[in-house]
What we know:
This is Zinc finger protein 664-like. The chain has 173 residues and is an alpha+beta fold.
Amino acid sequence: LFTATRFITSLNVHLKTGHTGEKPYSCSFCRKRFSAHNLLKAHMRTHTGERPYVCRQCGKTFSNPGNLCIHRRLHTGEKPYCCAHCDKSFSRSGHLKRHELLHTKETLFPCGQCGKAYTDKSSLKKHMKSHASKEQKEQGEASTTLVASFDKYFLIIYCHYNLISLKGYILNL
């Protein structure tokens, strides 16, 4: 039951934390801070492994209700995110955003070696392997490549050449 007292309390907490940036709730495991108790509670599940949200159809468990909602769409076939450019629809908003890049030709992932750009990380990773194989053919030696993702940036380490490419810039060691 939502009462006037509860509303005023919620409003006061919102005004105190939402507009001042104050984060009074702290995780006892990692000391990360939160503006609301419910956000801390959800975060704590990453440490405890608690997964209280259960799919009624298959029994799979989730740590937050949003992921359960997305999962249910696998069973129902619901695809609420529709492309404005074509007739495709998606179960996740992120999948729609990635798809729409194909229509806009927007490229967010440039290659640090040749400048060619891609709409998604996996295509860039595949492309980076072609650079490694070209160098191996040219040099006749094995070159070790480590590709690690840092959100939209990639760190490419070529052990054989001692080069580091970070955010598209190449630095000699």
